[in-house]
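Encode chain A's predicted structure.
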Amino acid sequence: MVEYKDTLLMPKTDFPMRGNLPANEPKMQEKWNEMDINKLQMGRTEGCPEYVLHDGPPYANGDIHIGHALNKVLKDMITRHRSMTGYHVNYIPGWDTHGLPIEQALTNKGVKRKEMSVAEFRKLCEEYAYEQIDNQRTQFRRLGVRGDWENPYITLKPEFEARQIEVFGKMAEKGYIYKGLKPVYWSPSSESALAEAEIEYKDIKSPSIYVSFALKDAKGVVPADAKMIIWTTTPWTIPANLGISVNPEFIYVVVAVADKKFIIAKELLEKVANELEWEAYEVVQEIKGDALDRIVAQHPFYDRESLVMVGEHVTAEAGTGCVHTAPGHGEDDYHISKQYGLPILSPVDNSGCYTDEAPGFEGVFYNDANKLITEKLKEVGALEKLNFFTHSYPHDWRTKKPVIYRATPQWFASIDAFRDELLDAVKSTTFTPTWGETRLYNMIRDRGDWVISRQRAWGVPIPIFYAENGEPIITPETIAHISALFREHGSNIWFQKTAKELLPEGFTHASSPNGEFTKENDIMDVWFDSGSSHQGVLVERGMKYPADLYLEGSDQHRGWFNSSLITSVAINGYAPYKGLLTHGFVLDGEGRKMSKSLGNVIIPKKVMDQYGADILRLWVASVDYTADVRISMDMLKQVSEVYRKIRNTFRFLHGNVADFDATKDRVAYEDLREMDQYVYMRLQDVLKTVRAAYDRYDFAAVYHAVNNFVAVELSSFYLDIAKDVVYIEGHDNKDRRAMQTVIYDTLMTLVKVMSPIIPHTSDEMWSYLHAQGVVEEVSVQLTDFPEVDEHENFESLRAKWVKIIDVRDDILKALEEARNAKTIGKSLEAKVTVYAKEDVAALLNDASINFAQLSIVSAFEVASIEAAPADALALEHASIVVEKATGEKCERCWSISETVGSNEAQPTVCARCAEVVEKYYV
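Encoded structure for chain A:
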């Protein structure tokens, strides 16, 4: 007696239902390392066009955070996709290793910097940086990021530093490097100058004061006893005041208040009167701003003049229209004071304390002086009003403490000298998203010269020597020599040798008749390090330059994108990148910034330990990364459900082609049934969508296209129907082989297109195919992306089957109603009669389509809409009656059929099953 369950061709696969990713992914990565998968994929594409995604270097300090994970996974999805679509890809990860955070980390560990030489301290910094790189590299690799991890670029490496020196030298040769005394962002907490990219803004509470300046020489323009009122939120800069600026086009008024007279802008009179609580006042004179030029005021508490100057920078947005001007502590102040020939006074030292140039306040920290100066102003009768207000203020991005504007001698890179070239380079770049162009363009248009010197120890030295008279020496000869020394010994040699030892042998200079030289002690801004990476990596390693793509967070428009553009245009006249792609920041599930104090930090390691890297990667693919994105453990749980659906679809597809040999059993497209052709067409639709989405870096479109196809076309439609054919028919049945053909192509396509997103899972599935001899390649990463396979009948097929699916949806609704009414249990218990209009009836009477099979019912009839009984369920495309099918339940296929028992030898199965059993199993 035949056991009917043994005659069913059930799915056969060892591919597990559960991924157990936290345990299995590291094993997969070990396998990749053993086979050197990166070398294999590069070998496979040797000779193909090169695609360069140049890595923006993360800073080598601490564990990676979720923003790092988003960034690196996005890059990995792009490089994996490009290597499967005809490009030769060598992704070289990098690290930024110089700068204050490492100095601070060592100090925090108890390193006594002042008890050792600079060279010794720098050696400790280097060792610490390498420790951090090893830690981060392990975490990045755990994400499944593929690249040349054994040969990353590191900004402290001699060959990188040598290239950086060459960049500096070329910029100097073109006259773009100069030394100047001008106000720059200065961090008292770091005791160093900062670039704009090292500034972040936070709210602070500041004093707001109105101060009156008596006139020393009114020049007959205004009453001699009038006073000018300025407004400032930095009382600590009053000791540095050398002038008052007015707008030449504004109308100014002399206002009599009680027995005093004040000068302010007419436009601001009402606002100031309210603020200073003037109960009664009278305008006694109006005068245009340019008439006030060069009258002289008196400093409130120093025996010093304060010159009145006219400048377009004065606005009527706030204050009095008379602007306190301290040339050593403000950019506008500096520029106008320079025009008027005023000295640059900055009576604050490196740590933010007053020098003896601020008598009475020597040694006082600038912020503590706000109160003392306000009290002094009150004492001399110059304080007209004191308030406090909260506003956004610049802070040091590393120490998180406020910065000041302070004039110090610094080395600068001129931007003005080639700003138009920079703006042209921005216009020639492709931006994703497109608004990035406007942002970078405006930043380059509006930015000042770049402060490139830093007063720190851990960084690349500024390769400048000084002659005996203090003249800076930067020549092609000295630059080439220092670059060669750094390439051989590393930049630490600068701190180990004297200037004489560092210069080329026999070097002479007219300004050093005695042959004596000194060297610069400052280091370069770390943005100059990473900003030179197009030379330190692309040119150094013989890669394509400019790169195809730079991809970083949107904050890098003022950081790495900016500094890289400046150095590249400065030395070569074009941008270092063809395209810029930016992503947003990662917020928690409620849209809040992550912080330890809120307890809402999502750590990549924790996610991978709980869910696996592929779940984190799938989350990256699911979000619109061009804006800020949200993540929470609940969101990851939802993504894991999508992953489970995709994984189980892989498993089901694989299980149902266990006895299918594509080289022998494939059915040609023309010979497929219409339903199989329709699903094949939908697979090509998805492939077309996915290929275009990958090309434009739209991973969310890939995610949604695949997810919808798996859920709608496969799980709820084709694979549900397939069971009645693939399980039930004989192994070589034509309809079964037709379905297996589509199932096989679907499996191969989905495994390949999902490989850039979930590489561990795709390669796991591939390993089973390889073990069975189905595929030759040892990894899906060593294959090409599938090409779209279009057929002539696609459009007519689509038009027809959209209507069929619509009617099927109505049938499924009717079956659900019948199930709820207990008319039937499972759908195979049902007979469905569809009462349809002529056009729909014509569709349903197509003899080539098995509508009972399509609807997963046992009996199916079509009738005219006019014959519909009153109790028929009227739906959008037809009226439908669902009733119990007549006949017996087939023991093998479970359909209800009146043919059960018609074969005496197989009395408990339907005629169809009896035929299969007798042909294949008896």
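The longest helix spans residues 699-726.
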